[in-house]
Design brief:
The structure is a single chain. This protein has helices at residues 12-28, 32-39, 43-50, 58-67, 73-89, 98-104, 107-115, 134-144, 150-169, 183-186, 192-205, 257-273, 277-288; strands at 118-123, 175-181, 211-216, 230-234, 242-245, 252-254. By secondary structure, the chain is α/β, with parallel strands linked by helices. It has a 6-stranded mixed sheet, with helices on both faces. The longest helix is centred in the middle third of the chain and has 20 residues, at 150-169. The radius of gyration is 22 Å and the shape is elongated.
Length: 293
């Protein structure tokens, strides 16, 4: 399994730009060494641009396009748009929370989520962050990250709420398909009242056209999701999909075709054996009305 660790993975646009620049150089028949010599730039820097490890500037890209013989104005404009879009994505809305996000290694996932068009999220233990109420989020963060101060906890709660507004209800909302194990609803997080409000939110938000929620009932027994939670992120073409696995200290993302296909197959299996969206809402409503133990 190909694991990649990075505090802030490359932006969607940088990954597209990297692939495009390598493709154009290969089509020109030039090697990196030849390009570096002709433009008098560092070969290592060019390599990092083609690997998506660093951004670049419109000036350098224009020089590269000239050298590669790219004369089509529309093609040149598309490539330069990727350069500008990458720079803009390096100025994310969550920058004001950078102190706490960098410390918690949360900004890496936000960078990926910001560019995704579709999120397939499986959660066996907790309500996904994009679907949490403020009180549920506060209870989860404070108990899972007991090393954080109250102000840091509140900052992360605010980030989570802003994520929801931007990703699910913003100008370009993503599609979210969330599959939850019944244990998510049975575990009291915060208080019974917090859980009732959380279940009500799940029922309400699942009515949105871009959100689907399914439940895996206890009666199902063992299932393919028992390995743990994961998120499959889909990006605009030609950027490949990837899988995000969250860990306490070193979260990882998988982007090999084999890994993404494996997790996609697991997600499809879970969708097939979970309750349908309508049944899920009915089941959540039933659980929310059960007497407290």
């Amino acid at each position: 399994m190909a694991l990649k660790r990075s505090l802030v993975p490359q932006s969607v646009y940088r990954r597209q730009l990297a692939a495009r620049m390598k493709e154009l150089r290969d089509a020109s028949g030039l090697t990196l060494t030849e390009v570096a010599e002709q433009l008098e730039v560092n070969q290592g820097s060019l390599s990092r641009i083609e690997n998506g490890e660093r951004g670049t500037t419109p000036i350098l890209v224009r020089a590269l396009l000239d050298l590669y013989g790219v004369d089509d104005e529309a093609q040149r404009a598309d490539v330069l748009d990727l350069v500008r879009a990458d720079k803009e994505q390096q100025k994310p809305w969550w920058r004001k929370y950078s102190t706490v996000l960098t410390a918690t290694r949360y900004d890496g996932y936000l960078a990926l989520e910001a560019g995704a068009t579709y999120l397939a999220n499986y959660q066996p233990m907790l309500v996904p962050g994009l679907l949490q109420t403020e009180d549920y989020a506060r209870a989860v963060i404070s108990q899972m990250r007991m090393d954080l101060s109250p102000p840091e906890i509140e900052s992360l709660v605010k980030v989570r709420m802003e994520r929801q507004n931007i990703r699910l209800s913003g100008e370009q909302p993503a599609k979210l398909w969330a599959i939850l194990d019944e244990a998510v609803l049975r575990r009291t997080v915060g208080s019974p009242e917090v859980m009732r409000e959380q279940m009500q939110k799940l029922m309400t938000v699942s009515e949105q056209p871009n959100v689907t929620v399914q439940l895996l009932p206890f009666s199902l027994g063992a299932h393919p999701g028992l390995y743990g939670p994961f998120v499959i992120l889909t990006f605009p073409d030609p950027t490949p999909n990837l899988v995000w696995l969250e860990n306490p200290k070193n979260s990882v993302y998988l982007e090999s075709t084999e890994d993404v296909a494996n997790y996609t197959e697991i997600f499809d299996q879970l969708r097939a054996c979970a309750l349908g969206p309508s049944e899920t809402r009915s089941r959540i409503a039933q659980i929310s009305k059960e007497p407290e133990e």
